[in-house]
Amino acid sequence: MSYNVSFISLGCAKNQVNCEQMMAAVQAAGHAITAAPEGSDVVVVNTCGFLASACEEAIDNILEMAELKKAGQVRKILVTGCMAQRYKDDILKEMPEVDGILGTGSYGDIAGAIAEVMEKGQRPCHIGNIHTANQSGERILSTPPWYAYLRIAEGCDNHCAYCVIPSLRGKYRSRPMGELLDEAAELASAGVKELLVIAQDITRYGTDLNGEHQLARLLRELCRLDFRWIRLHYLYPDEITGELIDTIAGEPKILPYLDIPIQHCNDTILKAMNRRDTKASLTEMLTRLRARIPGLVLRTSIITGLPYEDETAFEELCAFLRETKIERAGVFPFSPEDGTPAARMDHVDTEEAKRRAELVVDVQSDIIDAYNESLLGSEREVLCEGFDGQAQMFFGRSYAESPDIDGRIYFTADREVEPGSFVTVRLTGAMDGELTGELAE
């Protein structure tokens, strides 16, 4: 039997890759992938379960699909991913609308689960081994044709005190380099121009295979393929080697844009959170990166209200950000997650954590405004991504903007600019923290 199956993917890019693999598996089993859930036989909600707020978003999406099911527009609902892994019993008990569950160790079971709900009347619950689940497999890309993600590893061994990811995704497992290069070559031949190299921690790549850091070697091999840009997402601060810095600095295709989540700078907090950095080591590392990589743009993530963050530690964080001028930051109030050591530690209440997060956002707004101001009059290579009818301008990204998480560059042009093409834009202004300009050719 053939069915219409639609997918909703929530959360991070790593989750999106899992969704792309499920889509390919479903298509290979003879089913049709539909864009909209309305009229689908099966809707697959691929959830994030990293934070309570992500679980709330997932629940909202599931309930929305439940309404469509009630109205006869959807027949079955399958829930996959991190929230399914984390709260499988609660979902099965509290959400009768859900027809089946697949945990993070069981994405490969998707076609079988569809048969179970559609043909056998079963309510499957597939929770496979998260430490050994297969990471490879064909994908149907859900990104625009000009960029794609390459997930080089699964899981995490860092065990930060506030984080549930090791319990949802398993131990750190690098994918074999040959397999990655084959997948990347396919992406390049399909016309992908920007390759985003992702994992929970890409800097550790290869250390579980033979004890050696192999990211620099992998990147040099990827640079031999037909990509214009290679972008790196999540580098763990104390695993950044001299060889890696030399490779980033020496390879023109690797963008001078590094996403290095630091979370905080206070030594007491870092130690309590099981981070292996100190404020001094972070400062030294950021200084060294800026010195070696011209034009470097840094992105990080910051958590306010962590255990041991008193007013003095919070002021220290704000001062650190002003000094280091990290251009981009995702700022999150501390969320005490069930089962984490940090949740059992003393910390400020949620409202105070949120208040502090807003203050850090203000600090970061000043930093990005000053950065944008410094660029006015200069020219940037921009990857055009479309035309905004309301603004009557084209929009795209330079090396300094990663898809979906950073802003855009809006620009005027006296000719048509194809999405997916590279153009030179002269930067002339800013609006709401985003740069504006004009085609410079």
Describe the protein.
The chain is an alpha/beta fold. Helices cover 35% and strands 23% of the residues. Strand 5, helix 5 and strand 6 form a beta-alpha-beta unit. Helix 13 (311-324) runs parallel beside helix 14. The longest helix has 26 residues, at 350-375. The radius of gyration is 22 Å and the shape is globular.
Major pleated sheet: 6 strands, parallel
What is the approximate shape? globular
Total beta strand runs: 19
Work out the radius of gyration.
22 Å
**Strand composition percent:** 15-25%
| Oligomeric grouping of the chains | single chain
Unreliably modeled segments: none
SS summary, helix count: 14
Mean pLDDT: 94
Strands of the widest sheet, in order across it, are 2-1-3-4-5-6
N- to C-terminal separation?
Answer: 54 Å
Q: Helix- and strand-based class?
A: alpha/beta
Give the helix level as a range of percent.
25-40%
Characterize this entry briefly.
This protein is α/β, with parallel strands linked by helices and 441 residues long. The chain contains 14 helices and 19 strands. The longest helix is centred in the C-terminal third of the chain and has 26 residues, at 350-375.
